[in-house]
């Protein structure tokens, strides 16, 4: 047996230094869900109902309690925040969206791509939906250009 000064074993238990961060991100998931549902329903009751539904169906909504070290647990709250901000950008169609909102969407896109390799497919699906929305005249071309620009810029910066 090695002496205490020369052992690399440490405490003898695996250290999961990021678990506390995972639990905070799981809490951020609920917060992002509440913000998104409140914004879409324009009512706090809608946000509370969404959070209650999330907790009632928790086993089907997430796997964070069984496998906290999966990469999707890092990206899921950021994806919800990103969709909330994109919804805010689409809702604000009559005036230009603020630069801070666009930078926030760009940063969240980059973080999602950094944390989870399947985020690119979610962003591809979102972009396809925005093309369909433009064809049905739900959004105008400038909004789609702005959203597509953020997607491409985050993809290029992620790949660099």
Briefly summarize what is shown:
GO terms for molecular function: mannosyltransferase activity. The chain is mostly helical. Helices cover 71% and strands 0% of the residues.
Structure description:
The mean pLDDT is 84. The chain has one domain (19-159). The longest helix has 23 residues, at 19-41. The protein is mostly helical and 160 residues long. The N and C termini lie far apart (47 Å). The chain contains seven helices and no strands. Keywords: Glycosyltransferase, Membrane, Transferase, Transmembrane, Transmembrane helix.
What are the SSEs and their pairings?
Elements: H1 19-41, H2 44-56, H3 58-61, H4 72-91, H5 99-115, H6 119-135, H7 141-159
Helix pairs in contact: 1-2, 1-4, 4-5, 5-7, 6-7
Low-confidence stretches: none
What sort of overall outline do the alpha carbons produce when their principal axes are compared?
Answer: globular
H-E string: HHHHHHH
What count of helical segments does DSSP give? 7
Beta fraction: under 5%
Number of domains: 1
Overall mean pLDDT stands at 84
Largest sheet: none
Keywords:
transmembrane helix, mainly alpha, 160 residues, Dpy-19/Dpy-19-like
């Amino acid at each position: 047996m090695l002496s205490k000064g020369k052992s690399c074993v440490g405490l003898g238990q695996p250290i999961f230094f990021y678990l506390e961060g995972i639990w905070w991100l799981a809490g951020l998931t609920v917060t992002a869900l509440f913000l998104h549902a409140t914004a879409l329903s324009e009512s706090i009751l809608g946000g509370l109902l969404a959070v209650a539904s999330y907790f009632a169906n928790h086993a089907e909504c997430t796997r964070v309690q069984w496998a906290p070290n999966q990469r999707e647990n890092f990206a899921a709250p950021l994806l919800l925040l990103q969709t909330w901000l994109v919804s805010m950008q689409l809702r604000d169609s009559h005036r230009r969206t603020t630069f801070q909102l666009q930078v926030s969407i760009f940063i969240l896109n980059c973080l999602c791509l950094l944390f989870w390799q399947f985020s690119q497919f979610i962003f591809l699906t979102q972009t396809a939906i925005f093309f369909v929305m433009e064809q049905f005249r739900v959004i105008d071309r400038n909004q789609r250009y702005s959203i597509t620009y953020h997607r491409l810029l985050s993809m290029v910066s992620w790949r660099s």
